C-alpha cells in the first residue's frame, strides 16, 4: 500500500525505490505480483514515468484510505498508552475557527480523553506576546510571507485561498467580469486595524497600485461577517471552503477576483523549547485536521 501511494506521489519507480532504500527491480516485482493477483494491469509506463490505469487509480484511493486509518489508529494507541492529560491553550484567527479547530479538538479528546483544551480567538499581532510570555501554548494563524521568529518553531498546515465575497443580493453579484477597481468602490467588512490580515491585504492592494480597503466595519468574527453580508451592501474576504459552503446555500456570491495567495497558508507557532507532550499531541491533531480539511 505504501508503495502504491508513493508511486502516485512521485510518478517514477526509480524515485520510489530510492525513497524505500530498495532496488528498482524489487519495486517492479511487487507491482507485477500485485497485477497477477488482481488479474489486471495497474500501471502503464510513459518514458521514465508511470501512470495508473483506472483500476490502479481505484486501488490507490483505497490504499490511501487504509493507510490513513492505520495512522489514526497508531496515533490513538500511542496517546492512550501515554495516558496523556494536561492542558493546552490555543489562540487562533477567526477564519480557522470554524474549520480545522473543531476537528483538531475532537481528535485530541478522542486520543487523550483526560486532556483539557482552551481555545481563544484573536489576531497574530495580539497572540504573539501571549505566546512569548507563556500565557498560551500555540498560535494557529494565516500567513502570507515567511516569518522567522527567534525561539519560536512553526509548522505549515496547508493552503486554502482567500476569496472575495458579497451577499447574494449585492449588485456586483449580478455582474460578469468584476474588477478590483469596481470592488474597491464598495465598503468592506475589514479585518481589525493592526492585524496581520489587515496589513497583508493592504500591502497586496498597494502592490497592485490601489489604496486600502474602505468601510466603517471591522470584524474578527466570521459569523458576524456572514450576517453583515446578508444585510448590508458590503464585501469581505473569506476562506474559499467557507465561502463555497455559503455560496452553495445561496447566501453569498464569490466574486472573480484573485488575491494572489494572500493569507492562503495556515501555520501554527509554538515556543521551540516547549516539550510538553500534551501540546505536542495537539499539534499532531491540528496537522491531521488540516490535512483532512485542505485535502477536501
Question: Can you characterise this structure?
Answer:
By secondary structure, the chain is an alpha/beta fold. Helix content is 46%, strand content 20%. The strands form 4 sheets. A 5-stranded mixed sheet has the order 4-3-5-12-6, sandwiched between helices. The protein has a 3-stranded antiparallel sheet with strand order 10-7-11. The protein has 11 helices and 12 strands. α1 packs across α2 and α1 crosses α4. It has 3 domains: 79 residues, Winged helix-like DNA-binding domain superfamily/Winged helix DNA-binding domain (Arc Repressor Mutant, subunit A, Orthogonal Bundle); 110 residues, Periplasmic binding protein-like II (D-Maltodextrin-Binding Protein, domain 2); 94 residues, Periplasmic binding protein-like II (D-Maltodextrin-Binding Protein, domain 2, 3-Layer(aba) Sandwich). β3, α5 and β4 form a beta-alpha-beta unit.
Broad CATH class of the largest domain: Alpha Beta
DSSP strand tally: 12
Examine the secondary-structure arrangement and name the CATH architecture of the largest domain.
3-Layer(aba) Sandwich
Largest sheet entry = 5 strands, mixed
CATH topology of the largest domain: D-Maltodextrin-Binding Protein, domain 2
> Proportion of β residues?
15-25%
- The ordered H/E elements are HHHEEHEHEHEEEHEHEHEHEEH
CATH superfamily of the largest domain: Periplasmic binding protein-like II
Number of domains: 3
Task: Briefly note the structural class of the backbone.
Answer: alpha/beta
Measured between the Cα atoms of the first and last residue, the distance is 21 Å
What integer value in Å does the Rg equal?
23 Å
Please give the share of residues in helix: 40-55%
pLDDT averaged residue by residue? 88
Shape category: globular
Amino acid at each position: 500500500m505504501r508503495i502504491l501511494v508513493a508511486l502516485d506521489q512521485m510518478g517514477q519507480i526509480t524515485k520510489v525505490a530510492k525513497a524505500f532504500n530498495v532496488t528498482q527491480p524489487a519495486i517492479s516485482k511487487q507491482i507485477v505480483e500485485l497485477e497477477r493477483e488482481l488479474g489486471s494491469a495497474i500501471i502503464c509506463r510513459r518514458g521514465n514515468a508511470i501512470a495508473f490505469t483506472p483500476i490502479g487509480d481505484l486501488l490507490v484511493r483505497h490504499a490511501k484510505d487504509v493507510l490513513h486509518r492505520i495512522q489514526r489508529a497508531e496515533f490513538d494507541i500511542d496517546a492512550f498508552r501515554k495516558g496523556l492529560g494536561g492542558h493546552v491553550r490555543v489562540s487562533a484567527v477567526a477564519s480557522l475557527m470554524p474549520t480545522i479547530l473543531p476537528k483538531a479538538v475532537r481528535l485530541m479528546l478522542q486520543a487523550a480523553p483526560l486532556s483539557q483544551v482552551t481555545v481563544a480567538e484573536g489576531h497574530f499581532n495580539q497572540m504573539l506576546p501571549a505566546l512569548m510570555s507563556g500565557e498560551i501554548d500555540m498560535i494557529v494563524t494565516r500567513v502570507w510571507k515567511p516569518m522567522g521568529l527567534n525561539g519560536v518553531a512553526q509548522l505549515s498546515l496547508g493552503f486554502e485561498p482567500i476569496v472575495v465575497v458579497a451577499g447574494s443580493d449585492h449588485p456586483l453579484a449580478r455582474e460578469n467580469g468584476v474588477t478590483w477597481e469596481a470592488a474597491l468602490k464598495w465598503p468592506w467588512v475589514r479585518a481589525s486595524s493592526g492585524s496581520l490580515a489587515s496589513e497583508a491585504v493592504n500591502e497586496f492592494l498597494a502592490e497592485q497600485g490601489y489604496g486600502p480597503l474602505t468601510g466603517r466595519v471591522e470584524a474578527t468574527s466570521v459569523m458576524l461577517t456572514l450576517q453583515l453580508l446578508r444585510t448590508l451592501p458590503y464585501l469581505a474576504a473569506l476562506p474559499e471552503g467557507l465561502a463555497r459552503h455559503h455560496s452553495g446555500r445561496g447566501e453569498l456570491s464569490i466574486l472573480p477576483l484573485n488575491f494572489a495567495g494572500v493569507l492562503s497558508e495556515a501555520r501554527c507557532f509554538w515556543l521551540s523549547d516547549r516539550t510538553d507532550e500534551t501540546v505536542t499531541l495537539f499539534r499532531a491533531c491540528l496537522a491531521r485536521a488540516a490535512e483532512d480539511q485542505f485535502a477536501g
